[in-house]
Amino acid sequence: MVLMFRESNPTFKFVVSERYYQEESERKAMAEQIEQMGGQIENYQKKLEELQDKYTGQVRECSDLTCRLDSTEALKNLNQTSKMLASTNEELKKSQYAMEKYFIISEQKKSGRENKLSADNKKVVDNYQAELSEQISNMFSMVASCLSQQNAQIYGVNKLSQSRLEAHNKAILEMKKKFLASGDETTSSLFDELHNALTSHQGEMVLFARELRQKFHTTMEQTHEMSEYISSFFQKLMEESKNAENRVAEANDNQLNSIIDFQKTHSWRDKPVCLSVLMALLWLNP
Description:
One of its GO terms (molecular function) is plus-end-directed microtubule motor activity. It comes from Brassica cretica (Mustard). The protein is mainly α. Helices cover 95% and strands 0% of the residues.
């Protein structure tokens, strides 16, 4: 029915053909537009690729710039760190110099105190030697006085004994003469006189022996006191000598410990100035 209607109606044929041509032209236009759009798409694709390449290049350039910037910042930080290290090193050297100076000054003060202590010890020793010499001189004087007293006492005893013997011999001679001259009548009286004389001489000898015993005891007491004084004196001398030796040994130990502490504090290789400082200390403390 449709075909028959199309064939019998010419207007319909015209309309159909017109529509056909219109559709064909539209298809051609659409195809051309599609082709143009394809070309535009290709152009856009190329531009996109170019933009992508530019973006990649800019990213690389930005990365290079970032690396350069980081390197520059790192170099700047390194320079700042180097400056800080140099400043710190200078401060450390100043501090080290100040510490060494303070140590040297303290050691010099300590050496001065030790020298003063040594001078005081020497003064004490000199005073002790002077006192010792004076005491020894006094002791010798005392011994000489005691010996002279003993000699005088011995001389007095000898003289007294000699006088007693002479008196006794003289009395015997007188009695002998009287006995020979008087005869038998006066024998009893002579014996009485002889008895009285012997009794008197016996009393005098007892007194003399008692006096001699007292002098002997006095001499023994003086000798004992002198012995005790000499013993205590020499004991005190030994104690003072030992104390002086201990003080000298202690001063030497303190000086040696100071040198050992100085050697531990400062290294010979890292700090060559320590050698000169130690030599100065040794020169100050000979």
